[in-house]
Amino acid sequence: MKASPPADEILDSLTTTILLVELDGTVHYVNGAAEAVLATSAERVRGRRAHDLLGIGAPLQVALAATEENRSTTLRELTLKQFIGGQSLVVDCTVSPFGWDGAEKLALIELIRVDQLSRFTAEARSQERHAVTTMLTDRLAHEIKNPLGGLRGAAQLLDRELSDRESKEYTRIIIHEADRLSALVDRMMGPFTAHKKTWFNLHAVLEHVRRLTLADVQEGLTISRDYDPSLPEIMGDRELLVQAVLNIVRNAVQAMGGRGEIGLLTRIRRQFTLGNRCHRQVLEALISDNGPGIPADIRKNIFFPMVSGRTGGAGLGLSIAQDILSRHGGAIECVSQPGDTKFFLYLPVVE
Length: 351
Ligand SMILES: Nc1ncnc2c1ncn2[C@@H]1O[C@H](COP(=O)(O)OP(=O)(O)O)[C@@H](O)[C@H]1O
Ligand SMILES: [Mg+2]
Description:
Blueprint: H1 7-13, E1 17-22, E2 27-30, H2 32-38, H3 42-45, H4 50-54, H5 58-67, E3 73-80, E4 89-98, E5 106-113, H6 114-161, H7 165-188, E6 198-200, H8 202-216, E7 221-226, E8 234-236, H9 238-255, E9 260-274, E10 277-289, H10 317-327, E11 331-337, E12 340-348
Parallel strand pairs: 7-9
Antiparallel strand pairs: 1-2, 1-5, 3-4, 4-5, 6-8, 9-10, 10-12, 11-12
The structure holds adenosine-5'-diphosphate and magnesium ion.
Magnesium ion (MG) binds next to helix 9.
């Protein structure tokens, strides 16, 4: 049998915030997630009182007292003020008795972020939707491409038979439109082509897109950068990621009519959950713009193919970007209101 991993390792990999306290609230131990939530280190909180740390007095006292009678209590939707980055945090807090033979009785406090839970469900829904769309586009592409080839071939044969210019014009239209449809299908299937995986720095991708964009539209557009220089390299298909970022940045430029501000920001998130997996490190790239925002009527569906708010838009850019991110084990999220649109790209760091 393999040796079990040390309990500390397991506790530190959990996304649940765990504090082990004495019955008067004195902190004995906190896990990695707790350090992140409390924005401090285990050493600094040891010996302090949980009441003060969490800013909940009476309800915690009652819950701790209940553990003496071997009862667990869950305090629902507590708002903890001024946590990570000064933001308040909504949590469900469960206080349970914890002890082993001969040892002093302790209590286990678990905090589960409620906003995080709703993010998980939204993410799960988006992944499900993504799987359905991928299947649909696969099927659709298959159904369209085969007959299209036949159609084009027949038009070509017909074209040879015809002698007058006017009739030939019709066959040329058929051939031209068949080619256009075929190219559209290829674009929908685009990211399905072979992967070329290498190690690279995400900043190289962002910088590449920045240069391309500024070369396209010089005046009235600024692209600011706020990069975390300690970002580790990731393994993936650099060209595909350039495509994903380019699709997002291009949308921003188009929405702003070429004039405005785009921001590129990178950060590392620790103990971050994507899909069902908690990753030690996840890269976050935030692409923001101060344009008009995503039209309200399509805001919920922008990652679907064929959804576009632009006349003449194919509505493929974001669905392709989402596909590329998900092929790298990552995800995209978007929040938008007039004057402030943000696309968050998450990529796990595989060690
Ligand atoms: N930064 C943004 N600001 C405003 N609207 C946006 C932004 N990004 C995307 N959109 C909206 O989402 C739609 C879908 O984008 P996309 O999938 O790239 O398709 P397309 O660009 O072909 O329309 C766009 O047409 C636009 O209406
Ligand atoms: Mg687009």
